[in-house]
User: Which sequence fits this backbone?
């Protein structure tokens, strides 16, 4: 799912299996709506849309794009899930309209890879809670959310020694997401130059929801000095490893 | 040992352009690194159905490729070249086993991903040394909430586990 491994863990209760079922269905739904590869996904349809076209999309995709635009604005454009090497256009060229519709001011190459995973974690946690789970964790390829009364210790993979883990302490009711170029699974595109950037650092963002945590790791990694301000603008904190 | 020191001093020095494979070691270089001065005889194996099934059962890892490139190292053990899938592409690596089937060392031969240099890390590769088929070889055992990439470490670890079972089932006693 989402090109990665999704793990969920909850404190046992009668409805645990049903809760997992609903939570995985939510992740699957995010995948089907927001993957670039699936030809009928919202993202694929948006990427095929012509300039000026009105496109109706699912409420979930609409929500992700809304958050993406908010974070785009809060980070001065440093988060931009439209910036692609060799292509023009930014998230500002995407207009959100009422009724789950979107208008493109120009043809765009949208990729929600840097935010949808976090959103999927949030939807999965919501599903687990609705089904009665009181404590647990959801981890989608390193973007995670821990919930419940007890704080849980979170480890971050070291960017230069990916099999070494560094504890960042215990968090409670919080999302943690990390970006680094561990294994070539993430290409960090700098929206200012539209080129892939390399870095030996990793950025970990702790936030109240995983959508924001996931999205914010990229701008934080691109501008470490500004990261405390960028993260704080969205109520989050950033931690770096090198 | 120039290769190691270069890597340790500049672990993020990037030579390969984006989206290109970079070969770290040739097969011959990996042979020399794992079995210095050894004499190698091709002993490659094509697994039959029963063997592939037995290896999958023993290791808990699926066997995707029946052809296994193996060399017998006179008086010292076995040298195996294998591939596992990284997040998007293949990682080619070599494992040296001693005569009792324990890991002598592993070397990454080729890592065909855009940024995949870190997996060469010496300390990480060293953790496999001395492992045998009976060892659990599970990554990050008992550690739960991990933020950051998880896939490639897991795949190489699974690959080594599968090769240890392969040794038990297809090489031992040969």
Assistant:
């Amino acid at each position: 799912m989402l090109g990665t491994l999704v793990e969920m863990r909850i404190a046992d209760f009668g409805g645990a299996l049903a809760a997992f079922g609903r939570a995985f269905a939510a992740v699957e739904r995010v995948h089907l709506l927001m993957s670039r590869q699936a030809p009928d996904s919202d993202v694929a349809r948006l990427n095929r849309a012509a300039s000026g076209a009105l496109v109706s999309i699912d409420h979930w995709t609409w929500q992700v794009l809304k958050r993406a635009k908010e974070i785009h604005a809060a980070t001065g454009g440093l988060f931009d899930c439209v910036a692609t090497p060799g292509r023009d256009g930014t998230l500002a060229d995407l207009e959100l309209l009422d009724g789950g519709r979107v208008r493109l001011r120009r043809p765009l190459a949208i990729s929600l890879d840097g935010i949808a995973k976090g959103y999927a974690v949030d939807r999965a946690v919501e599903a687990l809670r609705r089904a009665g789970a009181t404590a647990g964790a959801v981890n989608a390829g390193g973007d995670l959310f821990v919930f419940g009364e007890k704080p849980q210790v979170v480890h971050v993979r070291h960017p230069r020694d990916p099999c070494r883990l560094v504890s960042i302490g215990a968090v409670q009711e919080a999302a943690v997401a990390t970006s680094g170029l561990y294994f070539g699974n993430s290409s960090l595109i700098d929206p200012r130059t539209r080129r892939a950037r390399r870095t030996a650092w990793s950025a970990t963002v702790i936030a109240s929801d995983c959508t924001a945590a996931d999205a914010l790791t990229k701008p934080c990694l691109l501008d470490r000095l500004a990261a405390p301000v960028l993260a704080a603008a969205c109520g989050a904190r950033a931690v770096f490893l090198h | 040992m120039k290769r190691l020191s270069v890597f340790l001093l500049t672990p993020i020095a990037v030579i390969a352009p984006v989206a290109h494979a970079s070969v770290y070691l040739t097969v011959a270089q990996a042979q020399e690194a794992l079995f210095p001065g050894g004499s190698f005889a091709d002993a490659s194996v094509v697994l039959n159905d029963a063997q592939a099934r037995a290896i999958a059962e023993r290791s808990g890892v699926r066997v995707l490729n029946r052809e296994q490139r193996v060399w017998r190292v006179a008086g010292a053990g076995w040298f195996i070249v294998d591939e596992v899938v990284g997040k998007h592409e293949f990682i080619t690596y070599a494992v040296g086993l001693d005569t009792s089937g324990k890991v002598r060392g592993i070397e990454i031969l080729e890592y065909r991903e855009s940024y995949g240099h870190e997996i060469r890390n010496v300390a990480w590769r060293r953790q496999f040394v001395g492992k045998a088929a009976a060892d659990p070889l599970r990554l990050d055992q008992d550690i739960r909430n991990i933020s950051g990439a998880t896939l490639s470490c897991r795949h190489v670890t699974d690959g080594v586990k599968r090769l240890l079972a392969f040794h038990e089932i297809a090489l031992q006693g040969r």
Summary: Chain A has a mean pLDDT of 91. Chain A is about 30% helix and 30% strand.
